Amino acid sequence: MQYSEIMVRYGELSTKGKNKKQFIRQLGHNVRHVLHDFPKVETFPRHDRLHVVLNGENSDKVIDRLKQVFGIENFSPSIKVDKDINQAKQVALKLLNQQYHAGMTFKIDARRQDKHFPLDTYGVDNALGSYLIDHIPGLKAKMKNPDITIRTEVRLNGIFISSKTIDGAGGLPVGTGGRATMMLSGGIDSPVATYLGMKRGVRIDMVHFYSPPYTSQQALNKAKELTAKLSVYSGKINFIQVPFTKIQETIKEKVPEGYLMTIQRRLMLRLTAAITLKRHCKGIFTGESLGQVASQTLESMVAINDVTNLPVLRPLLSMDKTEIIKIARKIGTYKLSILPYEDCCTIFTPPAPKTKPRLDNSRKFEKFIDVDGLMKDALDNMKVTTIRPGDEFLNSNQDVFSELL
Ligand code: ATP
Ligand code: MG
Hints:
Blueprint (H helix, E strand, L loop, with lengths): L4 E6 L9 H15 L7 E4 L3 E5 L5 H8 L5 E10 L3 H15 L5 E8 L8 H15 L4 E2 L6 E8 L2 E5 L3 E5 L8 E5 L5 H11 L3 E8 L6 H15 L5 E7 L1 H10 L5 H19 L5 E2 L12 H8 L6 E2 L7 H11 L2 H4 L21 H8 L4 H10 L2 E5 L8 H9 L1
Parallel strand pairs: 5-6, 5-7, 10-11, 10-13, 11-12, 13-14
Antiparallel strand pairs: 1-3, 1-4, 2-3, 4-8, 4-9, 7-8, 12-15
Helix pairs in contact: 3-4, 5-10, 7-8, 8-9, 8-13, 9-12
Pfam family, one: ThiI
Keywords: ATP-binding, Cytoplasm, Nucleotide-binding, RNA-binding, Thiamine biosynthesis, Transferase, tRNA-binding
InterPro entries: Rossmann-like_a/b/a_fold, ThiI_AANH, ThiI_fer, ThiI_N, THUMP_dom, THUMP_ThiI, tRNA_STrfase, tRNA_sulfurtransferase_ThiI
């Protein structure tokens, strides 16, 4: 069926009082952005709804895009008719027939914005309800939890009828929650943490550490490809790659083995904090989950977090790996994350890193290296690129080719 518009209902933002206007404006902007390649679509953000007028564009494709936009509670593809109850009856019957099986129940849920329309909401309910019952033998109305709800809105510019309500992504529109950086590895967790950060309305800049020649070009490309996958939820993303080889080599040479991991992490966080402040971001996200590995115990967090006062946000803190994997599959990052390219954190890691590093020792051993000089060098050589939905970095043919060499 050719729908005329998608009626979008706001989620949490409808309770945001005076910020509501800004939220709606940002959501309108984000929706326009994800639909930019549907030239005929028009969007009208209003105080209670956002109307996506299709003007003949394919509704299934538009619906798939809308499912990725944070700040949407749910939406309904709708058909517009003139303000004529007879036309409304026929469309309601068509929509009902699309879903109806013997024994199902229904109700009409009418609203009236145009107070001059001759029928009030009760009249619309009645007119459509009795028409449907007359035309479908055995059809029964049910007010509580019916199988099918026909929503009907009489507006100034026509009557809009819908029979389906599709869940949106929830959360808050990206851009309403400020900016933060994300420490992105190529693993399973940090992409999921990114998604959850975006879901709370935060715009995210990716920071990725790489250590050539210990880590390959493919490992770097994997982090970029993950960023492209995540950009469908937020629009383009700044990707900041920071060389980490020299720092790791120096730490390996100067620091006692038990503290290699802790000191490496302190330097990563120091660099990320410096980048965060320079870019006027307000916090740092990571993919850490309490107790998952040696660096993610409370003691390790004390020893590592010591280097910054910025909020370090850990959306996965209390999640089990199975829960995290479930989200990774849902958002389409899992298959990429399990590609076996090495991360810089796995090189130079002793077989048994300290699970309870001491803060005083961490501070002491860090002094064995030239922190400022190493940081300056890494920051001077970092590179920022912009990554967009659909960008590709992992060419499968290249994969095969490099394996042949
Ligand atoms: P992930 O699945 O995100 O890699 P993990 O469980 O493997 O997490 P670690 O590898 O110890 O745990 O990393 C913990 C966190 O440190 C990551 O979630 C990420 O936020 C950050 N991190 C790890 N490696 C890098 C890297 N190369 N660049 C930037 N951040 C990183
Ligand atoms: Mg990892």
